[in-house]
Amino acid sequence: MPLLDHIQFPADLRKLDLAELPQLAQELRRFIIDVVATKEGHLGASLGVVELTIALHYTFNTPEDLLIWDVGHQAYGHKILTGRKAQFHTNRQFEGLSGFPKRSESPYDVFGTGHSSTSISALMGMALAAKISGKTDRKHIAVIGDASIASGMAFEGLNHAGDTDVDMLVVLNDNAIGIDPSVGALKHYLTQVKQGNPSQDNIFEALNFTYSGPIDGHDLPALIAEMERLKKVPGPKFLHVVTTKGKGLQQAEENQVTYHAPGKFDRETGELLPKNTADLPPKFQDVFGHAIVELAQRNPKIVGITPAMPTGSSLKYMMAALPERAFDVGIAEQHAVTMAAGIAAEGLVPFCNIYSTFLQRAYDQVIHDVALQKLPVVFCLDRAGIVGKDGPTHHGAFDLAYLRCVPNLIVCAPKDGPELRNLLYTAQLGLDRPMAIRYPRGRDLARHGDTPFSEINIGKGETIQKGTEIAVLSIGPIGAKLYEQQTHLEQPQKVGHYNMRFVKPLDTQLLHRIFTQYREVVTVEDGCLAGGFGSAVLEWAQEQGYALPIKRFGIPDRFVTHGPTATLNETLGLDTKTIITYINQKTRPPL
Ligand SMILES: Cc1ncc(C[n+]2csc(CCOP(=O)(O)OP(=O)(O)O)c2C)c(N)n1
Ligand SMILES: CC(=O)[C@@H](O)[C@H](O)COP(=O)(O)O
Ligand SMILES: [Mg+2]
Questions:
Q1: Residue 276 falls inside a structural domain
Q2: Domain range spanning residue 135?
Q3: Is 31 part of any domain?
Q4: pLDDT 10s digits, 227-240
Q5: Which site from 109, 378, 385, 439 is most exposed, i.e. has the minimal number of CB atoms within 10 Å?
Q6: Is 361 a catalytic residue?
Q7: Exposed/middle/buried for 528, CB within 10 Å: 0-12, 13-18, 19+?
């Protein structure tokens, strides 16, 4: 790589002639493809912004000038050009580079991202800080995608910034797709703008931004010339750039949804490496996706909602089968929840499927719009627990804790696919309150097929195995995993195992039996210990006057890094081996 080999930092890049930059873009693309082909990660977004990345670092004096990447999944080129080329092969690996910008990783990562639509507000804060502290020369730039800019938070930032004279440049990277095709009226507006249709006023100009574009985001001279010009324009500016997601790899351009994060592929041909998944158990997302179609075909009141994750949540199956009752609302978690509340208020049964981590953004809506009014919205929280290589921005660590404290809310987690189906079935039978069903990223432990639906009593746990000394109380598939390893128990007859299913309401009848029959209780959950399932059991036991020792396994009070889920669970002491070792120590007969 004749040019890229000599670039460690943007200062090296700025020594190149303008005419050399297209060649550099080719090399940078090749570098990204080569690494992601084997190490996996987000591909299409970074390929699409190769020229934009080069142009920004060429034009602006980063890191003195501040550059924020919204979401940050498109920042691989940025990482490679800002001192991390040699480590890039560790991207998203345990103890390697983060897949997203991270302040502790580099001074060029001026703001940590992962969740979308934060860049404009963060940038505005930095631009205001510069003004207050007299850093008048500093430039501020945010790059935000067309799906992310449609989110409420981005609009809040634009609305405020446009009413000030802060020096900031918002670059809209418009490729007309998020993970799935972009949706919404703004998408149609942007399409009109790109087609040169002058029939409407420019929204961004109306918000008091100096608007420029749309320009071809793969044309380096045009990008650089326009950025140089905008550098001299005071106040809030908006540059509309049109790119192709996956640019430079044919398959990624043609199949943008799959190549958002394609897994391993052939670096030369771009073909996905074959995965033999036919005999594997289904993914939990697919158990949801197929069950909701089955249920919705029987129950005309069911409505499906996803904020921008039709593929990731598998709501796409319902969107294909019953398009009039399944909605992708874009990256709009708050809207999704309150819209679900409205649907429930009218007597229909909304299933609002949101990744656990993204529901954090709609917490007030869960409380104020849903729970307070006791509206029977069904929250399906996918990606609960440790998600792996996306890391701390994406782990679903907090949901049990942040939901358990909300009155009126039923909170549960199935141990496996059939139980997920049954909880979904139960949720549409006519609940008088909202219910949250959380399940993890990845696959069930076994293939069960589409088992017949049956109702689960709300607040009732399940005895998996009776024992005499230690009672294991688990919530979710982590319990099934543990049970699968029971042959490693030295004294299995001493160990009882209970699949509690519900964090709220707790099965207090079952708990009374357990607390009177055993000498120690062990709780197991793949959520944060603070305020989670084990906490609920502890609080209950204390209130009831039980003095049994309670050992809790869960996520400790720290943010969990990125890496393979199994590795992370080991570092957290949440792997089955650690839990079984603990139980064996406790059940060993005295010497
Ligand atoms: C709050 C939030 N919701 C959902 C997501 C999941 N997500 C990650 S990237 C993405 C699409 C982003 O699309 P766009 O902004 O157009 O960027 P592109 O991938 O096209 O570069 C989504 C929905 C997220 N990261 N944050
Ligand atoms: C960047 C982002 O937020 C998504 O692309 C996320 O990485 C998807 O996660 P899953 O792979 O679990 O669907
Ligand atoms: Mg996009």
A1: no
A2: 4-260
A3: yes
A4: 999 999 999 999 99
A5: 109
A6: yes
A7: buried
Distance from the alpha carbon of residue 259 to the mean position of ligand 3, in angstroms: 13
232 with 314, same domain? Answer: no
**pLDDT tens-digit series, residues 413-462:** 999 999 999 999 999 999 999 999 999 999 999 999 889 999 999 999 99
* 390 marked as part of a ligand binding site: no
Q: Which of 100, 361, 381, 390 to mutate to test the pocket of ligand 2 (most atoms within 8 A of CB)?
A: 390
In angstroms, the CA 332 to CA 418 distance is 30
3-state secondary structure of 381: strand
Does residue 452 lie in a domain region? no
Nearest bound ligand to CA 149?
1
Instruction: Give CA–CA dist 87/73, Å, rounded.
Output: 17
For tokens 């505005």, name the residue: 124
Same-domain status, 192 and 299: no
Q: 466 and 427: one domain?
A: no
- Domain shared by 434 and 519, yes or no: no
Instruction: Give me ligand 1 centre to Cα 329, in Å.
Output: 13
Q: Which of these is catalytic: 139, 361, 438, 504?
A: 361
Whether 480 and 427 map to the same domain: the answer is no
In the numeric block, the tokens 């969740």 are attached to 115
Q: Which of 40, 51, 226, 333 is catalytic?
A: 333
- Tell which residue, 285, 301, 284, has the closest CA to residue 431: 301
187 in ligand 2 pocket by Cβ < 6 Å?
Answer: no
Is 83 in the same domain as 232? yes
Element (DSSP H or E) covering residue 221: helix 220-231
394 is in an annotated binding site: no
**What's the CATH code of the domain at 536?**
3.40.50.920
